[in-house]
Amino acid sequence: MSSNATSAGRPISARELLPNDEARVKLRRIRHFKDLTTRFLVSTAGYGVVISLALIFVFLFIEVVPLMRSASLGDPVSYPVPGSDAETVYIASERYQEAAVRFARDGTVSFFDPTDGRRLGQRVIGFDGAEVVSFGSGEPRTGLVAYGLSDGRAAIAKHVYDITYPDDVRLVTPRLSLPLDEELVAIDDQGQPLNVIAIQEGGTGIGIAAATADGRLLLTRYASRRSFLTGETEFVRSSYELPPPPAAPTRILLDITMRILLVGDAQGFLHYYDISQPGQARMLDSRRVLEGELASVSAMEYLLGTVSIIVGGSDGSVSQYFLVRDEDNINRITRIREFDRHPAAITSIFPEYTRKGFAVGDAAGNLGLHYGTSASTLLIKPVSDQAVTNVSIAPRNNGMMWTDGTGQIHYASLWNRHPESSFKALWRKVWYEGRSSRDYVWQSSSATDEFEPKFSLVPLSVGTLKAAFYAMLFAMPLAIFGAIYTAYFMSPKMRGLVKPTIEVMEALPTVILGFLAGLWMAPFVESHLPAVFSILILLPLFMLATAWIWGSLPRAVRYLVPPGWEAAILIPVVLFAGWLCVTLSPLIEIWFFDGSMRQWFTDVGITYDQRNALVVGIAMGFAVIPTIFSIAEDAVFNVPKHLTQGSLALGATPWQTVIGVVLLTASPGIFSAVMIGFGRAVGETMIVLMATGNSPVVNFNIFEGMRTLSANIAVEMPEAAVGGTHYRLLFLAALVLFGFTFILNTIAEVVRQRLRTKYSSL
Known about the structure:
alpha+beta; five-stranded antiparallel sheet; 16 helices; 34 strands
């Protein structure tokens, strides 16, 4: 054997070019080292991915765990009641729990440290010889209280806490103020005892309602007026007598708008009065709120915002009600939810200062914590052998005080940070304040302090699936059919142009797609709705017509186009069809939709938002198409040639070969492409954030927007208070999104493995 290579003037044989035994051993060692290194790096990367996913899950779970923790009460501290030995009628504390107040039946008002009972001050309200018959308090935030007296007058006071910072140290100074500039005000001009009294402060002034011993129901309003000249405030009094309830009142409530008055009576009924025009006040509705005929309303309080009413009965029941408009546009007292029953009569109810929760004391010495929105009974705990006569929650919901028949005040620390979270509040329909029925709602914040947070994850989950569904509906046919044609029918040179071009689309930032979709595509689609639907109908027809015309041409003409380049003929056809549909869009609106297709949608009851699922589907589809196309195209292209050649040799046409051989063999790869694309769509953020109205609604209407889990996290996480319920619920949303993608990927892998096993014999 000769060779061009020479050594010392003689040819070198091929055998001499091969490595010797020593060189072979060295090459094997190098190859073995490379194999071990590659195996180690690949294994390490794989384990790293698994560990990273596990750590992400653990981190999310740690942030979510506090949502599952129930309320707990610390060991109580007890001390004698400060001030007089008279019966305690009301207790409350200030924000920092450095000062608290106790109102006694004899008018003694004592300020003290709630943690140890240390006295901070005292004042006595004079009743001018009258006796205390009743006591009422306004919303806890106002600090307003009222004593109802035996001579038809009332003593009105307010506990106030001045906070200063001398030497950079917080100093809380409690004091008692007189909001009406006098201790005693007249309520009943006839001088009858005020058996039941209610007081409330709103934007229009102070309102006082009272039931007298002779069965009358009175309403007194004090409207404040400030003099522009002197700056002094004067109060204008107006009094009204309302129609009395059928039975003796046991509790009266006024709302902060001074438009609604509620009366609970001894027969277990709740009566609703419209007092928006006090001179024409009337009872609009009555409802039995307790089941037993002998049961009576023993306690009743408004929750924060004075919309929901918590009714406690002598039978231990605790229920929530508020007014709901019926078909006749009349407000009706409606039972919204019930809480776990207490073992004895409810003696005291105290609402939270900043949330829709409340504390309850009963005659058996139990304390209960409940939350309205989540319909949760968080705690029922025995704390005394005697009836709990008063209960109070600290403004920051981190402490509780209560009294019983022992002549002592009891204080305990409280952990109750996330009562808004429950399975029902997150995943089931909830009847929120001000709504006519139960619904799924996500609305985490509002402009008012009385706002009821709505934390249903259903609209966000549905929005996530909705966005992904319409994106896949747009992307799957284009990507999969394009991949099949590119890999099997297209010429290698044209494939070398098309595939890289589509794959480059994947590098386009999604924020750019979202920007274009929100600012250009959404208005364009809205103004050219007929064109969108015309393209869906006319474009396939134009393509089929072009194919028929092409097939009818003489072979000599068709042979002018090289095999595999036929797709280039469709480029001008597609452009022409699109231009034609856009040009005819105004005429189609005039011919078929009275000049406006959007208005036609509205007339037939279909809601249309400019930024909707249609726009998101198109924009997100462009982001998903490259992923699906690339993986599916590789799967189809890598089908063994002997399978396709054998099919063709047996007489099958190219399309029969594609359907019967290529698709079956490539099905695991195509399915993986689809599921990876779906996972990409589920986790997409910027396109959904910019191309939808971000409205958390529960529907699959293609013309309405949505809010997805990822977009919601991106929007609200910067505004959420660290460690708060809203903050942790956003982490729960991330955990749900993580679960979605994990489940989808797991299902995809299982199905892919089964498809590979099924068609591996081909």
